[in-house]
Specification:
This protein is of the alpha/beta class and about 350 residues long. The strands form five sheets. A five-stranded parallel beta sheet has the order 3-6-9-1-10. A two-stranded parallel ribbon has the order 2-11. A hairpin with a 5-residue loop joins strand 4 and strand 5. Helix 12 runs antiparallel to helix 13. The chain is globular and about 70 Å long.
């Protein structure tokens, strides 16, 4: 299927893109409680077949937590853990701790995010920017290594294991701290969105009583299960393994183009300064690997068995936004330079 892109190289979303039957059923169910945001819903769904994590960033009241809460309802057997971000959260309360009893026994307490084969498959960290730095090392081990460590014991996480963070945008805001750079680099997507369209807001207004129901499980049902998700994940891995050298080189050049320490970063930003002076952190090897897996999962959702450059191009903005950080110099002039300006420059300057 041919994909449409705008003048900035961004995908123009059409719901007809999705041809994979399971994803079509998942999106149909989630439309019952979410109005609009279909592209974002699909990308969060891709996390399960691409083995990734994401942060959802939008202004308060734009449905971040509600969107993230949909997925456990449409995937049967998905075990959920939720950590509400607060400054007094401790690593032990999240990953667990041990208790020594009077008779010499040691008891293991799981914490808010249980591990092991029967542990959590889906972790929602709500208001993630309200957690302090002491907690992030625990989260980052779970996200990258799919395991957690308590004292002298390391326990694997369940399979699959997907983490979704939510944060108000722009961040940091009042009472919040920015996510660590190392946390961003462990994310596959940084998804950001604005207000719904006028038609969407009219529809939300019409369905107020239904959409404000605190029990969405009454409205939607599971349309797939963890076993089917794991099967689709293997299909995505097969697409990734079969990627051509042309596609791999395109992924590498796109990633390389975000790095200020490489000769490929050229161009001038809208404030008149070279991009090389405005970028603090470019895409790491994790960025390239995440881009390949995200594009493979996207191709699979579209019903394509082959990874093509246009799949990579479609996923690049949200992957690069997670792995790239602008320097303080980008915010000093009257004309602030956002990371999306760099992403557009890289997209326009990099051909397959």
């Amino acid at each position: 299927m041919k994909l449409d892109f705008d003048n900035n190289g961004r995908l123009v979303w059409h719901s007809e893109y999705v041809q994979q039957p399971v994803f079509r059923k998942m999106l149909a169910e989630m439309r019952k409680i979410i109005v609009g945001y279909e592209a974002e819903l699909l990308q969060i769904s891709l996390l399960f077949t691409a083995d990734g994590h994401a942060v959802l960033m939008a202004n308060s009241g734009l449905g971040k937590t509600k969107i993230a809460s949909c997925f456990p309802l449409v995937i049967d057997g998905l075990k959920v853990a939720r950590v509400q971000g607060t400054p007094d959260n401790l690593p032990s309360s999240v990953v667990g701790y041990t208790v020594d009893t009077a008779d010499g026994e040691r008891i293991w307490r799981h914490g808010q995010v249980p591990g092991g084969a029967e542990g959590a498959n889906f972790l929602l960290v709500d208001e993630a920017t309200r957690n302090t730095a002491r907690l992030w090392a625990a989260f980052m081990q779970m996200m990258e290594e799919r395991q957690k460590t308590v004292e002298d014991r390391t326990q694997p996480m369940a399979d699959p294991f997907v983490t979704v963070l939510t944060a108000n945008f722009p961040a940091p805001g009042q009472g919040t701290v920015e996510l660590p750079d190392a946390c961003y680099d462990r994310l596959m997507f940084n998804l950001q969105w604005g207000y719904p369209s006028l038609d969407g807001l009219v529809e939300i207004t019409r369905r107020t009583d239904e959409l404000k129901d605190p029990h969405p499980e009454k409205l939607i049902q599971a349309v797939t299960d963890v076993g089917e998700i794991l099967k689709m994940r293997e299909e995505v891995r097969q697409i990734s393994r079969a990627a051509t050298d042309q596609v791999c080189q395109y992924i590498a050049r796109l990633t390389y183009g975000t790095n200020p320490h490489t000769e490929t970063m050229k161009g001038t930003a809208s404030n008149g300064k070279p991009f090389r002076e405005l970028v603090a952190m470019g895409g790491s090897p994790r960025c390239a690997m995440d881009l390949k897996m995200a594009a493979s999962a996207f191709a699979h959702a579209l019903g394509d068995g082959t990874l093509r450059p246009e799949h990579v191009k479609a996923m690049f903005p949200d992957v690069a936004r997670a792995h790239t950080k602008m320097a303080d110099a980008a915010n000093l002039s009257r004309k602030k330079v956002k990371v999306d300006e760099l992403i557009t420059e890289v997209l326009k300057g990099t051909t397959p």
